[in-house]
Amino acid sequence: MSLGLLTLGAVALDALFGEPRRWHPLVAFGNFAHRLERRFNSGGRGWRSHGVSAWVLAVLPLSLLAWLLSQLPYIGWLVGVVALYAAIGLRSLNEHAEPVADALEAGDLDEARRRVGYMVSRETRELDESAVARAATESVLENGSDAVFAALFWFAVAGAPGVVLYRLSNTLDAMWGYRNARFERFGWAAARIDDVLNYLPARLVALTYALLGRTRQALRCWRRQAPRWDSPNAGPVMAAGAGALGVALGGAAVYHGERHERPLLGEGPEASARDIRRAMDLVRQGVVLWLAILILGGWLLA
């Protein structure tokens, strides 16, 4: 079965069922990763080498298992579809973003703050309407890259083992990749590996956003603004996305009680509830474009 059809099948499963409500494999993996961290980083005293060892134990055996299962006759293709379905989160992203936009449009700022708190790590209790919309729009653009497009990319490159390796690595970065006393040394490997795995996908996503929106403005924002962002991959994605939408993102945000003066991204008016929906539309259109390219490419190469 062609790569394009396998990818389409996984995206269709996500659209129909969303993330598994019970027995999600990433929940079990997260529990396993937490035990590994306690073992290798007891009291926050783990070194970089401990973090590398923990990453290897967490990621490589499961990636190898995915490769072995994908080689099985008759059902190997199904392993790939299920692996990709478990890795992407397009419907889940919309299920988190939509209630924020709904609450803002209904004038319920407290509910909007509560809902956006599920999407971002910054403090949301004091955000005004524009800041809530800005936070949600940024999250849609960035998580569209991490939770959707990068999974599609690694599945296209390396099949089931590729998407499993990527999703597990990305999960470890979310758990261990903090710059604080506990994870500064131990989580270094998880953060750097995730940066490497996201480098190419992030730039393809930035290009996708640009092509589907205000192209010249998106490319200009990407070139000028992305280098100022602290993340080498989130910068291009969010700068291009903000430029494509014609909206102003970035700016000051409070994380764990500390105010961070982040660079401005994009050009245009302050974000609103409408921009949250426009960002989701941009991600969905990008997925359609990628699927079309994969299907057409497979047909031409057949």
Key features?
Cobalamin_biosynth_CobD/CbiB, mainly alpha, two-stranded antiparallel ribbon, 4 strands, cobalamin biosynthesis, 11 helices, single chain, 302 residues
Structure commentary:
The protein has 302 residues and is mostly helical. It has one domain (3-301). It is 71% helix and 3% strand. The protein is built from eleven helices and four strands. It has helices at 3-17, 25-40, 48-70, 76-87, 90-105, 109-116, 129-176, 188-212, 215-225, 234-245, 273-301; strands spanning 249-250, 253-255, 258-260, 264-265. It has a two-stranded antiparallel ribbon. Helix 1 (3-17) runs antiparallel to helix 11 (273-301), helix 3 crosses helix 7 (129-176) and helix 9 (215-225) packs antiparallel against helix 10 (234-245). The longest helix has 48 residues, at 129-176. The N and C termini lie close together (11 Å). The mean pLDDT is 94. InterPro entries: Cobalamin_biosynth_CobD/CbiB (IPR004485). This is Cobalamin biosynthesis protein CobD. Its main location: membrane. Keywords: Cell membrane, Cobalamin biosynthesis, Membrane, Transmembrane, Transmembrane helix. It is a multi-pass membrane protein.
Could you write a compact summary of the structure shown?
The protein has eleven helices and four strands. The protein is mainly α and 302 residues long. It is found in: Cell membrane.
